[in-house]
Automatic annotation (TrEMBL), chain A:
Transmembrane segments: 32-53, 123-146
Annotated protein name in UniProt: DUF1468 domain-containing protein
A Pfam family it matches: TctB
InterPro entries hit by this protein: DUF1468 (IPR009936)
Keyword set, alphabetical order: Membrane, Transmembrane, Transmembrane helix
Domain of life assignment: Bacteria
Domain (DUF1468): residue spans on this chain: 11-147
TrEMBL record, chain B:
Keywords (A to Z) from UniProt: Membrane, Transmembrane, Transmembrane helix
This protein's name: DUF112 domain-containing protein
Residues in DUF112 domain copies: 18-437
InterPro entries registered for this protein in UniProt: DUF112_TM
Domain of life: Bacteria
Organism: Halomonas icarae
Classification lineage: Bacteria, Pseudomonadati, Pseudomonadota, Gammaproteobacteria, Oceanospirillales
Residue ranges of the TM segments: 12-31, 43-67, 107-129, 136-158, 164-181, 193-214, 257-278, 327-347, 353-376, 388-406, 468-488
């Protein structure tokens, strides 16, 4: 995607967001809405100006050639991002089912495997060490309560 | 007064005090480095440890944690572009580019020395000028706090890299996100979409973890890395950077003064101070175009200001018994637990403890130089880890850090949501710093505007009159106007150059 086209997409997204929030603020009382509405209107106006600037820029320079390469390379460009969003989302879901220790181990190993398939034994060892270190520092030393899950910690330890 | 000070000096050099400072600083360095663990959390977690200690020793330990964790947030900011604490966000702007240029050691060195000198400056202000300055903090009301937040917002233009309008939209989005949740005065829920997890808003720390760690991991995976890793892991020039920090005395003193003053103002905080100091340094610099690309001036300004906040924030606490930020509120709890009443009586009844504590802060500021450099020297090797291990570790720490803040799994999803926004910002080349500034300032601006409006019974004309008649308000209004003017002038100057 060329920079002007990116800017057009960005300004359109900000414009939609600004208008949606402005609309939403009419559901709130005047005192609660005043500052938020001001910001939403400002965002909409800025987005509108930016959209106009980029439309004019595109018209004047006419430099936006059709980007034929963007479609095939989209997954290559954003594949890693999708992977990270997926593993974090999966980790959170898993944490609430099998508990912290097991989910962290699965998350640690599978994430490393997804990024690079070398040194598998090292990945296993590192996963165990990392999970244990995080567990000891956060939940034992600092006394933070572990996330609630269907499988309790005792059950997990018995399973392991 | 000098007799009391000498008593405090003698107390500060007792072996137990020195040991407490050492332990506190070491713990603080590790706490500040981990994203999600803030200074407040570190001090709160270790208060129970100090129960059995003499009051001065316990307070020194807590003070050491406060100072060192404020500094050490910069270690992960410089090495990984992930601020360990909110106060280190401005440090990312130039610290990480320096690491990319193979100057990690120098960046850490500059950060350590600037933090130490900024901290010492503000502690000396606390020592000699606390009573006078505490009166200043009482003269500020809701209109001034609102204008201070507004002044912070005007800095967005200066922080913008490239397209100013794009950065300003990012800043406004940050302001809007900071308003999610309950209205501070009316209690009405806004932008929560019926989700209970959003009722208390999106905590700043969670936003920062998401905004910086997720995009950074993705860019780490996208980068083709071994040569870059080797460059980034270089750790030279740390020790020799003291001379360069001292050489920038004007920048250092200006930033330390900004940090101290912002620290005195209740509710403002170190992230605001570091952004204001960064902006001032950029405006005063002969090479403003280097800011955001590895400018040493920018790094020194941000770091000296955020540590100068520590001494400033203790002024209202120790002299008036008014905690100005969450850390000092927790410290106040520590004082009370040890049977001490913060306020003027603290200096009259227990001068050895009060002055001993202040001198121990000076010692903490000195001790974190070797400890910070030593820890950073080994931390820099982390960059050499295989990227799958490094990425997994960062993600795991980000997730646990987000969870640890309030013990809610929903916070991790919030962190992921903000992370996606952060990633989209990098895809669309929008600078993240203005959004952070918006996140920091939004709630402060709104709550103080509401309070100010309430004081004038909703009469906007009366409020404007107050802005133009109260002495501090006039100064802040002029500063806002000057900042906007300079921002637009910068935009006008930048355009022909770009063309």
């Amino acid at each position: 995607m060329t920079s002007t086209r990116k800017n057009l997409v960005l300004s359109s997204a900000f414009l939609v967001l600004g208008l949606a929030i402005t609309w939403e603020t009419f559901d709130y009382g005047a005192k609660s809405a005043v500052f938020l509405r001001g910001l939403a209107v400002a965002l909409s106006l800025m987005a509108l100006s930016y959209l106009a600037i980029n439309l004019l820029r595109r018209q004047h320079h006419n430099s936006d050639q059709p980007d034929t390469s963007s479609r095939p390379s989209w997954l290559a460009n954003h594949g890693n991002a999708l992977l990270i969003f997926g593993v974090v989302g999966g980790y959170v879901a898993l944490m609430q089912i099998v508990g912290f220790l097991l989910s962290t181990m699965l998350f640690g190993y599978l994430t490393q495997l997804a990024i690079a398939r070398r040194h598998r034994l090292l990945h296993v060892v590192y996963t165990v060490l990392m999970s244990a270190a995080i567990y000891l520092i956060f939940f034992k030393l600092l006394g933070i309560a572990a996330p609630e899950s269907l499988l309790s910690l005792d059950q997990t330890l018995k399973f392991l | 007064m000098f007799e009391a000070m000498s008593l405090g000096l003698a107390t500060a050099f007792q072996p137990a005090m020195l040991l407490a400072v050492l332990v506190g600083v070491t713990a603080g360095v590790f706490i500040g480095m981990l994203p999600g663990l803030t200074s407040t959390m570190g001090v709160a977690l270790l208060i129970p440890v100090t129960f059995s200690f003499p009051p001065a020793v316990g307070l020194s330990l807590l003070g050491g944690i406060y100072l060192a964790s404020t500094f050490s947030g910069s270690i992960s900011a410089i090495l990984l572009n992930i601020p360990g604490t909110p106060s280190a966000v401005a440090t990312c702007q130039d610290g990480f580019p320096m690491t990319q240029q193979g100057k990690a050691g120098r960046a850490i060195g500059l950060s350590v020395y600037a933090s130490s000198l900024g901290g010492i400056f503000s502690t000396l202000v606390l020592l000699f000028m606390a009573p006078a300055l505490s009166e200043l903090s009482l003269m500020l009301g809701a209109p001034e706090y609102f204008l201070l937040a507004l002044f912070g917002v005007t800095i967005i233009a200066s922080l913008s890299e490239g397209d100013m309008l794009k950065s300003m939209m990012g800043g406004v989005l940050g302001l809007i996100i900071s308003l999610v949740g309950m209205h501070p005065m009316t209690g009405e829920m806004r932008l929560t979409f019926g989700l209970p997890a959003l009722y208390d808003g999106i905590p700043l720390v969670i936003s920062l973890i998401g905004l910086y760690s997720i995009p950074e991991v993705i860019s780490m995976l996208n980068a083709d890395g071994k040569a870059e890793q080797e460059t980034r892991s270089s750790f030279t020039g740390a020790l020799s950077s003291l001379r360069d920090v001292v050489a920038q005395k004007v920048n250092l003193i200006r930033s330390s003064i900004i940090g101290t003053i912002v620290g005195i103002v209740p509710g403002a905080g170190s992230s605001i101070a570091s952004f204001i100091a960064y902006d001032s340094a950029k405006r005063a610099s002969r090479q403003p175009q280097m800011f955001g690309k590895g400018s040493e001036e920018g790094l020194i300004a941000a770091e000296s200001a955020n540590n100068a906040v520590t001494g400033g924030s203790l002024v209202p606490l120790l002299t008036l018994g008014v905690p100005g930020n969450p850390v000092t509120a927790v410290l106040m709890g520590g004082l009370i637990i040890h049977g001490l009443a913060p306020g003027p009586a603290l200096f009259e009844n227990t001068p050895d403890i009060a002055y001993g504590f202040i001198f121990s802060l000076v010692l903490s500021n000195l001790i974190f130089i070797p400890i910070g450099l030593l820890v950073a020297k080994y931390c820099v090797k982390v960059i050499l880890l295989p990227r799958e291990i490094l990425a997994t570790t960062i993600l795991a720490l980000a997730i646990i850090g987000a969870f640890a803040l309030r013990g809610q799994v929903g916070d991790v999803l919030m962190m992921l949501g903000i992370g996606i926004v952060g990633y989209l910002f990098t895809v669309f080349s929008v600078s993240r710093a203005p959004m952070v500034l918006g996140l920091v300032l939004g709630a402060m601006a709104e709550s103080n505007l509401s309070r100010a409006l309430m004081l004038v019974r909703g009469d906007t004309g009366e409020l404007i009159l107050q802005f133009l008649t109260r002495p501090f308000s006039i100064g802040l209004v002029l500063l806002c106007l000057l900042s906007i003017y300079l921002g637009f002038r910068k935009g006008k100057v930048a355009k022909p150059t770009a063309q």
